């Protein structure tokens, strides 16, 4: 019995750094803690520090390399966004620079909302733009880290989007809102629509793609593909949707900016299209941060 008690106490002592790290991160500014170096796998394709995990796998579909990025976090504040410049400006920067500046464990490109002037945009709980447009599906992320798509019928005007967001705000806090689109999967079902009635994202053409999805509570999935910029065919949006539906675990999925904006950055290293150095400056990133304080990580044996 004594040995069991001693063993339990030792296990508890080992858990103390993680327990101390289990507080939510502040919403303002960059994430406070740098990635834990020892949490990165030897092959550089996965990361696990006890408060979040990332797993990157690759495959080839129709002669195109694709990336599956699975993410699990323990607190919604670990899912974050960052801008290249000051709020309300047209700033743009290299994704790798933005990821390092914000202590991102994992970073992917956002929706380049500064490249146009429509849509409803929230970042880290702050409303940056309120120009509803029925041609732009909205992706909203609430304070629980859950993804919801708001899409309205063509020709219904901005009023329907406004009403939908107001109804959403009556029950949720909006942490992030994106306006690239279109929305692809909601409640596990493929969304049916006429892509010609949406803002163009090259829906039926083969291209480099980035899609964000949710697979469970505080569990996320990103699907990224190579494309013509990497001397590969690329995939259409419908082909990406078919891949997501085939997994059987996708609850919500939404199309983000693609082309040379497509970036997967893990612990300060770009993981996709490594042999093709061309990289576009972008306006914003979506990123995930650790809850482990830097001093606690430094004390690990």
Description:
With 301 residues, this protein is of the alpha+beta class. It has one domain. The chain has 5 helices and 18 strands. It has helices spanning 2-20, 95-101, 157-169, 237-247, 294-298; strands at 46-48, 52-61, 64-73, 79-83, 106-109, 119-123, 126-131, 138-142, 147-150, 174-178, 183-186, 189-190, 210-216, 219-225, 252-255, 264-266, 269-270, 284-288. Mean pLDDT is 90; it is low at 1-21.
Summarize this entry quickly.
The chain is an alpha+beta fold. It has five helices and 18 strands.
Largest sheet: 8 strands, antiparallel
The quaternary structure here is single chain
The count of domains is: 1
Q: Supply the helix-strand structural class.
A: alpha+beta
**Sequence stretches where pLDDT stays below 50 over 5 or more residues:** 1-21
SSE blueprint and pairings:
Layout: H1 2-20, E1 46-48, E2 52-61, E3 64-73, E4 79-83, H2 95-101, E5 106-109, E6 119-123, E7 126-131, E8 138-142, E9 147-150, H3 157-169, E10 174-178, E11 183-186, E12 189-190, E13 210-216, E14 219-225, H4 237-247, E15 252-255, E16 264-266, E17 269-270, E18 284-288, H5 294-298
Antiparallel strand pairs: 1-2, 2-3, 3-14, 4-18, 5-16, 5-18, 6-7, 8-9, 8-10, 11-12, 11-15, 13-14, 13-15, 16-17
List its traits:
301 residues, alpha+beta, 8-stranded antiparallel beta sheet, 5-stranded antiparallel beta sheet, 5 helices, 18 strands, disordered N terminus
